[in-house]
């Protein structure tokens, strides 16, 4: 079964620390799925799993919480991004906590990350061959509307992969996976509510040059909820294993409380051990 199983990773900002806990269990047990796909924080966390670096997911998510370059209003004002993408995907992997590029590139299997094409409103997918020491494609997948600038790749502007494909399970199935392990960062029963009129107006104003992107943002909650229903149906049919937090920890997308985040990491590790042992 393992050879036809893929692991699918949702985003969610700092809630992605849960995913790092899941990955830590997999790395410790030597479980390497031959197909890995993620968007947004899921795309970022997936790199540490594919490079097989135990402990790095936790360190890179938690050790820089008090550094303004990592996540702060100061970073937003000075760099245009609340999450300091140049620091996170530049200084950290290339100077402070070295990323194992060699293992990443030579690890077997398929690697996919998705980013939202702002012109088409659809998801463009990238593989290992697109990942360089600047991590531009990962930055694109993690660039949140209003909180990060668009990332241009070959002249095409991109934003957060979670806009167009919040849980890329359909892509995994289309690529041939017969079973998917899906790591979510929201608790059971979660469904996304509709966009407020004020937010809709703001999107229309700020992104008026990108009508396809605006349309995708407007129906984002509907697509997310349809995907959540689809996942539950896959699980009932035995085609999906869903790992997700139980909701006992209340945290924000931009959570900075290390104690809370460490507990979330531990919960991900524990839940993976229960679901996959």
Task: Walk me through the structure.
The chain has 277 residues and is an alpha/beta fold. It has helices spanning 17-29, 41-50, 56-62, 73-79, 85-96, 101-106, 136-142, 161-164, 169-174, 197-206, 211-218, 220-236, 258-276, and strands at 5-9, 35-39, 110-117, 123-126, 151-153, 156-159, 179-183, 240-243. Strands 1, 2, 3, 4, 5, 6, 7 and 8 form an 8-stranded mixed beta sheet that branches. Helix 1 (17-29) links the parallel strand 1 (5-9) and strand 2. The longest helix is centred in the last third of the chain and has 19 residues, at 258-276.
Strand content: 5-15%
User: What's the β-strand tally?
Assistant: 8
Radius of gyration: 17 Å
Mean pLDDT level: 96
* Main pleated-sheet profile: 8 strands, mixed
Structural class: alpha/beta
Unreliable runs: none
Specify the number of helices: 13
Order of helices and strands: EHEHHHHHEEHEEHHEHHHEH
Please tell me what the overall shape is: globular
N-to-C terminal Cα separation, in Å? Answer: 14 Å
* Helix percentage range: 40-55%
């Amino acid at each position: 079964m393992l050879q036809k199983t893929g692991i699918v990773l949702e985003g969610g900002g700092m809630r992605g620390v849960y995913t790092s806990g899941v990955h830590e269990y997999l790395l410790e047990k030597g479980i390497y799925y031959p197909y890995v796909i993620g968007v947004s924080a899921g795309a970022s966390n997936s790199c540490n799993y594919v490079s097989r670096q135990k402990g790095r997911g936790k360190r890179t998510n938690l050790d820089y919480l008090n550094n303004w370059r990592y996540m702060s209003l100061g970073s937003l004002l000075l760099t245009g991004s609340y999450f300091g993408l140049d620091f996170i995907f530049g200084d950290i992997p290339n100077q402070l906590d070295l990323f194992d590029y060699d293992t990443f590139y030579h690890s077997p299997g398929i690697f996919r990350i998705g980013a939202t094409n702002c012109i088409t409103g659809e998801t463009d997918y990238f593989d290992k061959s697109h990942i360089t020491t600047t991590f531009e494609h990962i930055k694109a997948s993690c660039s949140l509307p209003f909180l990060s600038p668009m990332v241009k790749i070959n002249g095409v502007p991109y934003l957060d992969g979670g806009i167009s494909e919040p849980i890329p399970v359909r892509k995994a199935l289309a690529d041939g996976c017969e079973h998917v392990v899906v790591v979510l960062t929201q608790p059971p029963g979660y469904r996304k509510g509709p966009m407020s009129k004020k937010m809709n107006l703001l999107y229309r104003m700020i992104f008026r040059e990108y009508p396809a992107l605006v349309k995708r943002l407007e129906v984002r909650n509907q697509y997310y909820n349809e995907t959540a229903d689809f996942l539950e149906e896959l699980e009932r049919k035995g085609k999906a294993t869903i790992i997700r937090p139980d909701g006992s920890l209340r945290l924000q997308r931009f959570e900075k409380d290390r104690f809370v985040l460490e507990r979330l990491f531990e919960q991900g590790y524990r839940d993976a051990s229960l679901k996959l042992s």
